[in-house]
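Hi support team,

I've been running sequence recovery on a batch of backbones for a student project. Most finish fine, but this one hangs at about 90% for roughly twenty minutes before it completes. I'm not sure whether the input is malformed or the queue is just slow. I've pasted the structure tokens below so you can try to reproduce it. Let me know if you need the job ID as well.

Thanks,
M.K.
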């Protein structure tokens, strides 16, 4: 039952973080969506994969357009 304790603790910590921090609307919506998925998951049920393909494709396209998200430097046209 340890995983259930971890899941409920994570939900509580996320809710506390969303309440205390001034976040952009998109980040707050993502946090609430994550809480919703965590709250609906049944014991022994795997994580949801809804939207994973779309987000992965969007991240890949964004990375190609802007360069590595960790570098903070856009790719130049000459590169």
């Amino acid at each position: 039952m340890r995983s259930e304790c971890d899941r409920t603790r994570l939900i509580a910590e996320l809710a506390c973080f969303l309440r205390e921090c001034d976040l952009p609307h998109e980040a707050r919506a993502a946090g609430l969506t994550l809480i919703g998925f965590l709250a609906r998951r049944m014991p022994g049920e795997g994580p949801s994969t809804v939207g994973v393909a779309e987000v992965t494709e969007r991240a890949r396209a964004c990375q190609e357009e802007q360069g590595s998200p960790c570098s903070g430097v856009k790719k130049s046209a000459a590169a």
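--
Follow-up from support: It reproduced on our side and the slowdown came from queue contention, not your input. The two ends are 52 Å apart (CA to CA). No action needed from you.
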